[in-house]
Design a protein that fits this description.
The protein is of the alpha+beta class and about 90 residues long. Helix content is about 25%, strand content about 30%. The chain has 3 helices and 2 strands; from the N terminus they run αββαα. Strands 1-2 form a two-stranded antiparallel ribbon. β1 and β2 form a beta hairpin. The chain is globular, with a radius of gyration of 14 Å. It starts with a helix and ends in a 9-residue tail after the last helix.
């Protein structure tokens, strides 16, 4: 909730735990476990508050994300591959 507010200006309420991805990133010397949580917007309008970390904000379906797969943050791509956004994890 805090990260969403800081990065987008949206106040959200968690609604469902979607799952996690295991994300080794040897190119930057890090290894993350990324948690994915579905949320409902409580208030606010989405705005890009950290332009150094992202180039744009958009509301996209899982299928629309798949079309843009090469542009995504690696953990989000793994989330898609695992089916976490489809309600049927692999």
């Amino acid at each position: 909730m805090r990260e969403t507010l800081e990065e987008t200006g949206l106040v959200v309420r968690p609604t469902v735990r979607l799952g996690f991805t295991d994300d080794p990133m040897p190119e930057i010397g890090r290894h993350y476990v990324t948690l994915f949580v579905g949320c409902a917007r409580v208030e606010g309008e989405a705005e890009l508050r950290e332009p150094g970390k992202a180039t744009a904000l958009a509301w996209l379906t899982p299928d629309e994300l798949r079309v843009r797969r090469s542009e995504l943050f690696a953990p989000l791509g793994r989330c898609l591959d695992a089916g976490l956004l489809d309600g049927k994890p692999a």
